[in-house]
Design goal:
alpha/beta, six-stranded mixed beta sheet, binds adenosine-5'-triphosphate, binds magnesium ion
Length: 266
């Protein structure tokens, strides 16, 4: 919806406002199964603008994966709201939610999650085939070129290096032209050089294609590819840093280690 802004000479300007790529409001996720309830997310509030690259960091168990999964519509929050673009997820039926996940978001995980029996090309086009969408050949060719796998399309995942497999997973995530790509430790299983390639690829999807990337990582160097670093601890955002360098990120994480642990009950 356009908003009205008063200029100093009291004229009114119409400023078009596009919705953020992803927005979460008072997001809470309590896991209740098996004894003591665990509050994985505790009132998280965040906006991820279109065409930006955000790293989500924080200690193990701080809620990073839970934030990604609830923000992406893979998991429903206990309370709070999530928007992807201008669609609010809580209002959606399971069918609509599945459709939104297939068309608007892409996922990349640490364990590439490729299907071993399928070729590279079949893995990349699998989401398209599942959704019944007609493959856009030109877009697919562009995606394959971006991940530099043109000569490997007929290979199976086991015949590829870790970095190449992750590039297949990224191509699969890009195949549907999603607005947002969620990555959970995408470089966790890769060596430094290969990780740099994958991060460069994610960076270029933001810079050259205006997509939005939200990436969980433990690695300050990986996080330094992002425009912004959000730090979680005990299910809450405890720092939100615009363009920190790897040193600043490492410092911030070290300071968390020195913090007294917050009570989950309180
Ligand atoms: N399915 C589940 N059932 C019960 N508790 C869960 C479940 N998934 C996560 N949790 C708990 O929620 C909290 C947050 O978990 P989450 O996986 O989001 O952490 P994380 O920050 O991604 O950690 P890591 O860096 O180790 O991947 C943890 O205490 C975890 O044990
Ligand atoms: Mg995790």
């Amino acid at each position: 919806m356009p908003s009205l802004t008063a200029t100093p000479d009291r004229e009114l300007l119409v400023v078009p406002t596009t919705p953020a790529a992803v927005r979460v409001e008072q997001l809470t996720r309590v896991y209740a199964a098996g004894g003591q309830p665990v509050t994985a997310l505790d009132g998280v509030q965040a906006t991820f603008d279109r065409g930006t690259f955000t790293a989500v960091m924080g200690p193990s168990g701080s809620g990073k994966s839970t934030l990604l999964q609830t923000a992406a519509g893979l998991d429903r929050p206990s309370s709070g709201r999530v928007w992807i673009g201008d669609t609010e997820l809580s209002g959606l039926s399971e069918t609509k939610l599945t459709e939104l996940r297939r068309t608007k978001v892409g996922f990349v995980f640490q364990a590439f999650n490729l299907i071993g029996a399928l070729t590279v090309e079949e893995n990349i086009t699998l989401p398209l085939r599942l959704s019944g969408a007609r493959p856009d050949r030109r877009w697919l060719a562009e995606v394959v070129e971006r991940v530099d796998l043109g000569s490997r399309l007929r290979h199976r995942p086991a015949q590829l290096s870790g970095g190449q497999q992750q590039r297949v997973a990224i191509a699969r995530a890009l195949a549907m032209r999603p607005d947002v790509i969620f990555c959970d430790e995408p470089t966790g299983a890769l060596d430094t050089q290969t990780a740099a390639e994958v991060l460069g690829l994610l960076r270029s999807t933001v810079d050259e294609h205006g997509q939005t990337v939200i990436m969980v990582t433990h690695d300050p160097v990986a996080a330094s590819y992002a425009d912004r670093v959000v730090v979680l601890a005990d299910g809450r955002i405890v720092a939100d840093l615009p363009q920190p360098g790897a040193d600043r990120i490492a410092e911030q994480l070290a300071s968390l280690g020195r913090r007294p642990r917050l009570s989950r009950e309180g």
